[in-house]
Structures are given as structure tokens and as C-alpha cells.
Amino acid sequence: MDINDLAAVAQQMVAPGKGIIAIDESSKTIKKRFDAVGIECTEETRRAYREMLLTTPNLGDHISGAILYDETIRQSTKTGQRFVDVMNAAGVLPGIKVDLGPVALAGFPGELVTEGLDGLRERLKEYVGLGARFAKWRAVITIGEDMPSSTCIETNSQLLARYAALCQEAGVVPMVEPEVLMDGSHDIETCYDVTEATLRSLYQALYEHNVVLEGTILKASMVIAGKDCDEQADVDEVAEATLMCLRTAVPAAVPGIVFLSGGQSDEMATQHLNAMNQMGPHPWPLSFSYGRAMQSAALKLWAKDMVGNFAAAQQTVALRAKENGLAALGRWTPDLAG
Ligand code: 13P
Fold it and tell me: Of ligand 1's atoms, which has the minimum distance to the CA of residue 138?
């Protein structure tokens, strides 16, 4: 595929006022989410839940794409329409999680490395056949005592770069996601330093692997204090620190940056994105690729009554999409929240 085609898809992913819904939880992760609301995790409940999300009326108004899991990209609605076709009809680009998840990094207790490169060229070919237009790979960077090591950062950057190069070869836009975890008691300055080091390492690796930045999207974590840190920065401080870090480490050739929510509350994730966009203009559009912060309200409602609350759950998906879409323009206001 021509690099201009990849660049066009990347730009579509971060079109003004639109963002991504991440529904690519592995079967293990979605089981955790279902357990928390008392739903049995079976192939059919996973399918029914994702059908509820993907058939939300007018989803494409504020959602440019959805990241699916391997099982999900093969599934269909109750009436037999492939999810991918439903998405295309709604103007929502199909994306696919292609990493196989993080495992322990040998020799570095407490640190993680993401697996999934073996056979990726062939898997990408299959996903393209199934309709995928972009892909996602998540690397996990843990902050702790003497962590992260430079080995952890550099190994994950190399893997992200090899993944991204394979995606571009296959004609799908790589969404590169180096997530610096919010777990821990570290302060915001530590998160800043780790995020900057991670992004610098990532863009060096992408350069070395001949990845064309114009055909990529960055999925970033915000610069924020650890969950257990006594001192939490306010919304403007998080927004300013995140912007400064991105400006110093992310090339302007990148077509867009989308954030993960990483365990922030729905409203905080929206407020942070909104604050950053109010501080613009920036070298790149800043939008969202939220998982939990897009889904949690809907999951709770749907879990109580899968049939009776189907439409109400979809309304919360639509509302969260609208709120985050407005935040991507810096036009969100608190009265919009449900
Ligand atoms: P959260 O927004 O729940 O962090 O999920 C986004 C995601 O896709 C993480 O890889």
C-alpha cells in the first residue's frame, strides 16, 4: 500500500472531534471486567456485549475507529451481520489488537515485555483480509524502585518498531502504544521523566526501522502521578506536563496522538483531554482511544439487564463518545456529563 493511503487512514483516525473506542480486551481481561459486574464470561456474552457497543446508533458521529480483539473481528451480530460490516456502514474504521500481551522480562523482576512478533506478518495478512485498517500493540512500562530499566524501555521500543514496520508493509496503520503505568506511589515528575525517556527511545527505534511516521498514530499515557501518590496534580498541571513531554519527544510528522485512560475515572479522562486541547494549538491533533473511560458506565447498565437496558447502555456509549469528541476539540463542559 502507498504511504499516502496509510497517512489518509491515520488522519481519518484523528479527524476533528473524533476518537477511538478501545474494545480489544483479551478474553482474560474482559473476564476481569465481567467478573466485577457479575456477568459470566463466555464467547456468547462477549459477542453480545460487543454487539451492544458496536451497534450504538450514530456511533460514527464521534468515533472514527474501534480496536477489536482477535475473537471479535471474526464475530457477527445476532442477525448475522459481520461486526466489521456494521462498523464500515457506520463510518467506524476497524482496528485490531495484534500483540499477545505482556509477560515477565527475564532478568528484570517486576518488568514486562510484550510478545507477539512471531508469525505477525502472516497474522497481519489475515487481519487485512478480515477488514482491519489499523492495528495496535501495547508495551507496558512499570515505574518502581530502580524501574524502569533502560533494557526494558529499549527492548519494548525495538518490538514496537518491528511491529510498526510489519504493519506498514501489510498496509495497516500501526498505533504504537507505550503505556507508562499509573500503578505505584511515584510523583508526577517521575512519570514525566519516564514518559520522556520512553518516547525518545520509541522514536529513535521507529527511525532505525524505517517506519514512516506520517503513517502511524501514537497512543500515549498522560503524565500523571501514581495512583497511590499522596500528592495528585490538578487537571491543568496534568495537561501542561503531558503537553510539555509530548512536545519535547514526539516529532511533528506524527499525524495524531490518542490517549489511553489507564484507570482514570471517566470524567477525569475527559477533563484532561479537554484541558490539553484548550491549551492549543498543538503540532498534532490530540484525541482519545479510551477503553474503560468509554465503556464502564455502559457495562454497568448492560450487566443489570442485558435485554432491558440494551438501549440505555448504548445511550451512555453515545454520550461518552460525544463528551470525549468535544474534549478532543477543547469544547467539553461539565453540564454535558450524564
Ligand atoms: P484504557 O483506556 O482502559 O486504559 O484502555 C485503553 C487500551 O486500549 C489499553 O491498551
Answer: 10
